[in-house]
C-alpha cells in the first residue's frame, strides 16, 4: 500500500477505514516453550531515565525470557500539582501554565482551557480570532504528528534521520509561532473570548508558504518510511487494541481512531468553526502500531486541507470579544467542562467557580495519562523491544501525564 | 437522544428503585446541570446509564474530585440567667464532604455530557464511595488520582494505590485545608531510606 492508494481508493465518504490487509505482515506463531524447562521470571525496571520513555516515566516489567508477562507503569516524577497552582492564582494566570502541560503543543492546550472558560463566562469569539485559533491549532497538530512519527522511528532504531527531518519542518512552524506570539513553544497566545494579538503584516503569506512546502516533506517522509519492509514487520500486528476496550478505557485521539472508532471532537462537538471546513476523519482497521502511525500521516494530509482553506478565507476584524475582561474576572457561581481535540486526544478542562477571583476547582483531563491505561494490555505477550514501540505509538508527553 | 434533566431523573428512578437523586443547578452560562447520586445506589445508576439503549454512555471522559470543607456558622442566642439577659454565641459546624464528579459521553450515539456526582458523608472517616472502574476502565487511573490527591476511598477498585505522590506520603494535597510543609528537607522521601542503605556500602572516610 502506498500513500497514493490510501488516498484515492481507500478513504471513501466522510470517515472510512483504510485497508491495508492485502500487504499485511502476518506475524508468525509465538514459539511454544517446553514446560519442563521453565526458568525464573525476571523483573526489570524500565526508566525513569530510559531514552525511549520520552521523559521521566517508569515501567516495571516482568519478563519470561524476552516476553512480557506483566507491566506496571509508575508516574509522578514530573508532578508539580498544576491544579493546585491554578486554584491559588487568578483565572488568567492559568493560561501560561497550560503551555507547560504538553510542552510540544502549547497552543492547543491554551485553546482547550479558553474553550472551557468561554463556556463558564458565556463569551462569543470573533471570527478572525477563531480563524487564527484554527490556524495555529492545526499547525500544532501538523508538527506534533510529524515529530511523533520521527520519535517512533527513532525508537525503532532508525537513528536520527527521520526525527531530524521532522524537526526541520517543526522549526519552520515554530518560526511562525515566534513571529506571531513572541515565543517558540510557550506561546501564551489565547485569551478568554479571543486571542492576545493579531497576526503581523505578511504573516499569513509566510504561513501559506510554509504550508505549501509541507506536502513535499510528507511525500519524502512517506517514500522513506511507510513502505519500508522493516518498519512494517516491526509494527504490523504489534500492540493490537480492540474497539470495545478502546471505548471502555476512554482512549481518545488518533489512538482511538486507529481502532476504527469514528470519534473526532472536531466533527462531534463542532466547536469553534470546524463545521466550515471540508476534511475527512481517517480510520484504522486493525488497531495495531502501524495503524496508529498511519493515522497520523493521513491526519496530516487532512490538516493541510483545513489550513489551506483557513489561510485563504481568514477575514479582517476584531480579535477579541469586546465584552471580555482581561483582569479581575469573577464568573458566576457554576461550573463548566470544555474539551477540544488536541493532537494527543481529548484534552478537557473542568472549572468550578464560587464567584471569587480564583477558580474553586481546576481540573485537567489529560489524554496522555488516560491513553496509558491499557498499556499493560497492549504489551503483554510481546517481546520487550516492542514495548518501546508501543509506548512510542501511544504518544505521551510526561508534562501532561504528571501535571 | 438525552432527555431533559427532569425526565432523565424520572427514568433513572423508575429503572433503579430506591435511588435518591438530586438535581444540582448550575448558574453559569454553560448550563451543564448535574445529577447528585447517593453512594448506595451510585453503581447501579451508573450501570443503567451505560447500558440503556437510548443513552449508551459508554465513554467516561473525566472523573475528578472536589473538596467541600465544612462550614462554621455563628449564631447569637439570647439567654436569661438570674434575671439578666445575656448573649451567647453558638458555633454550628457542618461536616463538609468530598465529591467525585464523572462526565459521561456516548461514543456510539455521539451525545453528552451527562454529569453525575457522589458525595461522601464527611471528610474524615466516612470517605468511601463505590468505584466505577468495573464499568468504565478509563476511571482506573483517574480514581487512583482522586484517592491520591483528595483521599476518597473507592470500594471495588482493582488497584487503589497512590499514583502521583509517593508511597508513604500522608496528607492529601488537593484538599482545601492542606498545609504545605515548612521545609521539604524533612519530608520522608524514599531517598532517605536509600541513603541509609547506601551507608553500608560506602567505605568509611579516612581520618584527616
Question: What are the defining features of this structure?
Answer:
heterodimer; A: 403 residues; alpha+beta; Cytochrome-c3 Hydrogenase, chain B; 3-stranded antiparallel β-sheet; 12% strand; globular; disordered N terminus; B: 208 residues; alpha/beta; Beta Polymerase, domain 2; 5-stranded mixed β-sheet; two-stranded antiparallel sheet; 31% strand
Summed up:
With 403 residues, chain A is an alpha+beta fold.
Q: What does it look like?
A:
The complex is a heterodimer of chains A (403) and B (208). Chain A is built from 16 helices and eight strands. Chain A has one domain (3-7, 35-402): Cytochrome-c3 Hydrogenase, chain B. The two termini of chain A are 40 Å apart. Chain A is α+β, with helices and mostly antiparallel strands and 403 residues long. In chain A, the strands form three sheets. In chain A, strands 1-2-3 form a three-stranded antiparallel beta sheet. A three-stranded antiparallel beta sheet of chain A has the order 6-7-8. Chain A has a two-stranded antiparallel ribbon with strand order 4-5. In chain A, α6 (161-181) packs antiparallel against α7 (203-225) and α7 packs antiparallel against α12 (289-313). Helices cover 44% and strands 12% of the residues of chain A. Chain B has a single domain (5-67, 99-199), classed as 2-Layer Sandwich (Beta Polymerase, domain 2). The longest helix of chain B is centred in the N-terminal third of the chain and has 11 residues, at 5-15. Chain B is built from four helices and nine strands, in the order αββαββββββαβα. By secondary structure, chain B is α/β, with parallel strands linked by helices. The mean pLDDT of chain B is 83. Chain B is flat, with a radius of gyration of 24 Å. In chain B, a hairpin with a 4-residue loop joins β6 (96-106) and β7 (111-119). In chain B, the strands form three sheets. A five-stranded mixed beta sheet of chain B has the order 1-2-7-6-3, covered by helices on one side. The interface between A and B is large, with 43 and 34 residues.
